[in-house]
Write a structure and sequence with these properties.
globular; single chain; mainly alpha; 53% helix
Length: 335
């Protein structure tokens, strides 16, 4: 769902400040000719994504009609897959956001990483770990610019789902090539998942959730497919997308009023922790993604439990002194 992988991803990160906006450049490979400035031009529509997303959401709407006809166990299974044990939001927050893009904690046992992170991530069908993490790092470094894959300055629809309907802006690709992703390339779990992503994600996101109700308690394949796969997946996607859209447009900014990400309580409830988005962008290394720790933050509960069981370690947190100083310096005074 994130678009084609950028070439040259091994190029180390450059610490020098770079021009963020799209600009006219000269390239020796182009014979010294100026490259066209893409700013203001309409990007090419990816019709495949438009069709697939339209069909997916139409299927989700149709799934609502099937709810009264389904067995209660099927509805519980769909809930169990997406909210209780295999919560897509928890996978995205604990796995993608805290572990691989920012290394907010360290899951040191490979078997634990495979089970708790790699397997869970498959259910979300939001691209492989490498591609998601790379784009998430670009999003943080160049937030609300043309280099941001889902730039909220282009409106709610674009940041929510529209960015999937067009080709990536040139700046997203160019800036992504300059990030240091050698840690991802060296991670065997990341590379294994990337290699077998397509077949494994189809099995885990659609086949397994569909077959369990049909095989174990005799639900029809039709109901199983639409309720446990299509409806569940669509809800999961939209909850995750709200972090890109609503949490970048609506809410207060107690930690840094100069950036777009906000504290959005409604998104926090749905995305179980990611709604504390002004905090997350101000202190991206904090594994909790929130100043409030365990309060209204199941992701923190999950990571803390892993650490308590000895399955993860080295949790990183912003100190209270640092948080208070930052709020006093750049916050909007809302808390």
């Amino acid at each position: 769902m994130r678009g084609p992988t950028a070439d040259g991803a091994k190029v180390p990160f450059c610490n020098a400040k770079e021009e963020i906006s799209a600009r006219v450049e000269t390239s020796e490979g182009d014979g010294g000719q100026k490259r066209p400035d893409m700013r203001g031009q309409r990007q090419n529509i990816v019709w495949r994504n438009v069709v697939l997303m339209s069909l997916l959401h139409l299927g989700a709407v149709y799934s609502l009609v099937l709810i009264p006809k389904a067995k209660p166990l099927t509805l519980l299974w769909a809930y169990f897959c997406d909210v209780v044990f295999l919560s897509s939001s928890l996978r995205v927050t604990a796995g993608f956001v805290s572990k691989w893009p920012h290394y907010g904690f360290r899951a040191f046992q490979k078997g634990t990483r495979v089970f708790c992170l790699f397997i869970w991530l498959l259910f979300s069908l939001q691209n492989d770990i490498f591609e998601w993490s790379r784009d998430h790092r670009v999003h943080h470094k160049y937030s609300e610019t043309d280099a941001d894959p889902h730039n909220a300055r282009r409106g709610f629809f674009f940041s929510h789902i529209g960015w999937l309907f067009v080709r990536k802006h040139r700046d997203v690709i160019e800036k992504g090539r300059k990030l240091d992703v050698t840690d991802l390339l060296a991670d065997p779990v990341v590379q294994f998942q990337r290699k077998y992503y397509k077949i494994s994600v189809v099995l885990m996101c659609f086949v397994v959730p569909t077959l369990v109700p049909w095989y174990i308690w005799g639900e029809s394949l039709w109901n199983s497919y639409f309720l446990a796969s299509i409806l569940r997946y669509t809800i999961s996607l939209n909850i995750t997308w709200l972090v890109n859209s609503a949490a970048h447009m609506y809410g207060n900014r107690p930690y840094d009023k100069h950036i777009s990400p906000r504290q959005n309580p409604l998104v926090t409830l749905g995305a179980i922790g990611e709604g504390f988005h002004n905090y997350h962008h101000t202190f991206p290394y904090d594994y909790s993604a929130s100043e409030f720790g365990l309060n209204f933050n199941p992701t923190t509960w999950f990571i803390d439990t892993m650490c308590w069981l000895g399955l993860a370690t080295d949790r990183k947190r912003a100190s209270q002194q640092v948080i208070k100083a930052r709020k006093a310096r750049t916050g909007d005074g809302s808390i």
